[in-house]
C-alpha cells in the first residue's frame, strides 16, 4: 500500500481571521431632511391606503390616522393583515410621506382608578402599539386620561405604570410614544405642561416624547396668541418637557377663549387664536425642522373640522401659507376633499335621523297623555248608566238585609 503524503500544517496568518462587518448605522428617514412637515388627520375608511392617497391629494407631506375605530373597544382581533400592512408601508415609501402619526383610541384612560378600565386600557394601548408597528408608524399619540377622584400625583403614577405594562415585551423598534397635552376639561390630566413632563420623566427608559396641541394649550391658559405669551410658553415648554422632545404639534385654532378649559377645535386662523399667531408659531425658529434651533422632521398636523367639502384642503393650504412655504408645498388635487357632497348629505341625514329618534325617546308618545286623561276623567265623572246601576245594587243589598 503506497504511503500517504505527509501534509505540513500551514502557518496561521492573522489576516485570515474572520472579522464580522460592522453593522451599518441606521439612516435617518427621508422625511428628516430639514424640511417642515405639514399634514392633516386622514381617514382610513375603506382601506389604510386611502389615508395615504388622501394626504397626497390634499397637498401634505405628513399625516395622522387612527389605526382602528377610535370610539370602540377593538379586542385582540383588531390586527392588520400583513399583506395590507406591507402594501401600506410600500405605498407610503413611494409617496415619501412622513412622519406617520397614529392617534390612539379615545376610550383609553391611562389615569383611571377603576381596575376594569385599567385592564381594558392596557390591552387597547398594547393593540395600538402592535398596529402602529405593523404600519411602520413613527409616533403613537395618546391622551393621558382622566383621574376621577384621585390626586394628580396618584394619576401620574398610574399613567406611568399602565404605559409600562402596555409596552412590556413589545419590541418598540423605531416607534415613539407621545403624550398629548389636554384642554383641562373635568379631571383630565395633562393640561399643565408640568404634568406631561412628570409623565415623560417616569417613562425615561422608553422611547417617549410629547405632542402639543395648540387649541389645548390655549384653552388650558397658555397665551400662545400674543408674541410675549408665545415666548413665555416656549420657556415653560423648555422647562417642563424640553422642546427637543416635542416632534409633533397638532395645529388647531380654538372656538374657546383663553383659559376656557374646553376642547373645541376650529379652522386654522378662524378661531380665538387667529391667523397672526399661527404665522408666528409656524415661522418661529424654535418650532422649525431645521438646525440649529429646530428639530429635524418636526411635523404640524391639523385636526380641524370638515364642515363643508374642501375644508380639509383649505386648512392644509393655510398652514403652508402661514409658514411662508406655499411655493414648496406639494401640489394638491384641485377640488379633492375627504368630505364629498354625497357624503355630507348622508351625514346630515344620519344626524337628522338620530335627532328624531332621540326626540321621540325623550318625549311621550303622541296622544298618550290625552288618552290617560280621558280614562281618568271617565272614572271620575259618573254617567247616567253607572248611577242607575249603583241604585239597583243598593236596593238589592237592602232587600237582603231585611230578609
Q: How many β-strands, per DSSP?
A: 10
Largest β sheet strand count, sense and barrel closure: 8 strands, parallel, barrel
| Binned strand content | 5-15%
Helix-strand pattern: EHEHEHEHEHEHHEEEHEHHHH
Overall geometry comes to globular
Q: Enumerate how many helices there are, as a single number.
A: 12
- Cα Rg: 32 Å
Counting helices, strands and paired strands, the structural category is alpha/beta
Q: Averaged pLDDT, please?
A: 90
Distance between the termini: 151 Å
Strand order of the largest sheet: 1-2-3-4-5-6-7-10
> Helix amount, in percent?
40-55%
Low-pLDDT stretches are none
Layout of SSEs?
Layout: E1 37-41, H1 48-57, E2 62-66, H2 82-95, E3 100-103, H3 115-135, E4 139-142, H4 152-167, E5 176-180, H5 193-202, E6 208-213, H6 214-219, H7 227-240, E7 248-250, E8 253-254, E9 265-266, H8 275-282, E10 299-302, H9 311-322, H10 341-362, H11 368-380, H12 384-402
Parallel strand pairs: 1-2, 1-10, 2-3, 3-4, 4-5, 5-6, 6-7, 7-10
Antiparallel strand pairs: 8-9
Amino acid at each position: 500500500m503506497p504511503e500517504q503524503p505527509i501534509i505540513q500544517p500551514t502557518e496561521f496568518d492573522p489576516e485570515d481571521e474572520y472579522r464580522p462587518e460592522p453593522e451599518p448605522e441606521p439612516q435617518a428617514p427621508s422625511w428628516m431632511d430639514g424640511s417642515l412637515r405639514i399634514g392633516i388627520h386622514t381617514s382610513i375608511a375603506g382601506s389604510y391606503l386611502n389615508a395615504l392617497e388622501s394626504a397626497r391629494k390634499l397637498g401634505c407631506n405628513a399625516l395622522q390616522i387612527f389605526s382602528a375605530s377610535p370610539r370602540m373597544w377593538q379586542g385582540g382581533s383588531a390586527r392588520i393583515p400583513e399583506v395590507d400592512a406591507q402594501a401600506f408601508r410600500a405605498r407610503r415609501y413611494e409617496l415619501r410621506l412622513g412622519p406617520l402619526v397614529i392617534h390612539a383610541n379615545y376610550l383609553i384612560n391611562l389615569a383611571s382608578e377603576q381596575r376594569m378600565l385599567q385592564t381594558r386600557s392596557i390591552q387597547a394601548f398594547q393593540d395600538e402599539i402592535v398596529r402602529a408597528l405593523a404600519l411602520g408608524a413613527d409616533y403613537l399619540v395618546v391622551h393621558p386620561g382622566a383621574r376621577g377622584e384621585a390626586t394628580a400625583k396618584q394619576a401620574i403614577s398610574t399613567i406611568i405604570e399602565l404605559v409600562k405594562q402596555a409596552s412590556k415585551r413589545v419590541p418598540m423598534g423605531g416607534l415613539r410614544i407621545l403624550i398629548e397635552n389636554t384642554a383641562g376639561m373635568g379631571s383630565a390630566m395633562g393640561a399643565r405642561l408640568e404634568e406631561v413632563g412628570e409623565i415623560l420623566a417616569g417613562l425615561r427608559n422608553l422611547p417617549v416624547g410629547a405632542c402639543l396641541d395648540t387649541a389645548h394649550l390655549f384653552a388650558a391658559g397658555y397665551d400662545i396668541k400674543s408674541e410675549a405669551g408665545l415666548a413665555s410658553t416656549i420657556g415653560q415648554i423648555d422647562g417642563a418637557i424640553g422642546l427637543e422632545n416635542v416632534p409633533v404639534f397638532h395645529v388647531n385654532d380654538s372656538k374657546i377663549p383663553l383659559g376656557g378649559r374646553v376642547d373645541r377645535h376650529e379652522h386654522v386662523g378662524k378661531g380665538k387664536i387667529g391667523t397672526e399667531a399661527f404665522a408666528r408659531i409656524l415661522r418661529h425658529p424654535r418650532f422649525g425642522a431645521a438646525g440649529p434651533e429646530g428639530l429635524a422632521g418636526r411635523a404640524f398636523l391639523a385636526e380641524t373640522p370638515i364642515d363643508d367639502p374642501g375644508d380639509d384642503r383649505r386648512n392644509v393650504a393655510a398652514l403652508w401659507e402661514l409658514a411662508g412655504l406655499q411655493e414648496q408645498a406639494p401640489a394638491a388635487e384641485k377640488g379633492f376633499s375627504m368630505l364629498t357632497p354625497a357624503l355630507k348629505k348622508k351625514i346630515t341625514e344620519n344626524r337628522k335621523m338620530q335627532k328624531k329618534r332621540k326626540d321621540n325617546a325623550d318625549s311621550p308618545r303622541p296622544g298618550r297623555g290625552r288618552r290617560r286623561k280621558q280614562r281618568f276623567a271617565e272614572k271620575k265623572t259618573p254617567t247616567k248608566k253607572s248611577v242607575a246601576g249603583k241604585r239597583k245594587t243598593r236596593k238589592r243589598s237592602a232587600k237582603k238585609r231585611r230578609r
